[in-house]
Amino acid sequence: MPLTAAEIAKHLEGEVLGDGSVELTGFAPADKARAGDLTFAENQTYFNRAEHSAASAIMMDGQFTSARKTLIRVPNARIAFAKVLPLFFPEPPFAAGIHPTAVVAPTAQLDPTAHIGPHCVIHEQTRIGACCVLHGGNHVGANCVLGACTYLLPNVVL
């Protein structure tokens, strides 16, 4: 789904310099950027590369100007980089349900939208909230409460 430079700037609490309606469909380093991509620059050297790239817009935190590219000025380019990546590369969705190798205590309460991965163990009186994702090998002890949208990477023990 393409996003406009203005939408991205709003998400990052940044400012658009140039055409805010330019559609961005990807994120790439300047040397690999194509038309429709957003790239970023945190110093003059990177800005020069980005300005001469095929990217449609540049996210940056300096006082740079460009007659060729739409710019998105942000307070900190590295932090903005981390915030913008999920917009272009979202985490894959996890199907709701309990893997057949998971062990769930009879008194545990699991929201039907939760994903319980392989070899997870969920003990007595535990509550797992809506849209939770437990990757493989998680061990959730008795009486634990996981709020909505909790995301546990593999082998977490609570």
Give the helix/strand layout.
Blueprint lengths: L2 E2 H8 L2 E3 L5 E2 L1 E2 L9 E5 L2 H8 L5 E4 L9 E4 L3 H12 L8 E2 L4 E2 L4 E2 L4 E2 L4 E2 L4 E2 L4 E2 L4 E2 L4 E2 L4 E2 L6
Parallel strand pairs: 4-5, 5-6, 6-7, 8-11, 9-12, 10-13, 11-14, 12-15, 13-16, 14-17
Antiparallel strand pairs: 1-3, 2-7
Please sum up the structure shown.
This protein is 18% helix and 27% strand. It is α/β, with parallel strands linked by helices and 158 residues long. Strands 2-7-6-5-4 form a five-stranded mixed sheet, with helices on both faces. Strands 8-11-14-17 form a four-stranded parallel sheet, with no helix packed on it. It has a three-stranded parallel sheet with strand order 9-12-15, with no helix packed on it.
Question: What does this protein structure show overall?
Answer:
The chain is of the alpha/beta class and 158 residues long. It folds into two domains: 3-88, MurE/MurF, N-terminal domain (Udp-n-acetylmuramoylalanyl-d-glutamate--2,6- Diaminopimelate Ligase, Chain: A, domain 1); 97-152, UDP N-Acetylglucosamine Acyltransferase, domain 1 (3 Solenoid), CATH 2.160.10.10. Helices cover 18% and strands 27% of the residues. The protein contains three helices and 17 strands. It has helices spanning 5-12, 44-51, 77-88, and strands spanning 3-4, 15-17, 23-24, 26-27, 37-41, 57-60, 70-73, 97-98, 103-104, 109-110, 115-116, 121-122, 127-128, 133-134, 139-140, 145-146, 151-152. The strands form five sheets. Strands 2-7-6-5-4 form a five-stranded mixed β-sheet, sandwiched between helices. Strands 8-11-14-17 form a four-stranded parallel β-sheet, with no helix packed on it. Strands 9-12-15 form a three-stranded parallel β-sheet, with no helix packed on it. The radius of gyration is 21 Å and the shape is elongated.
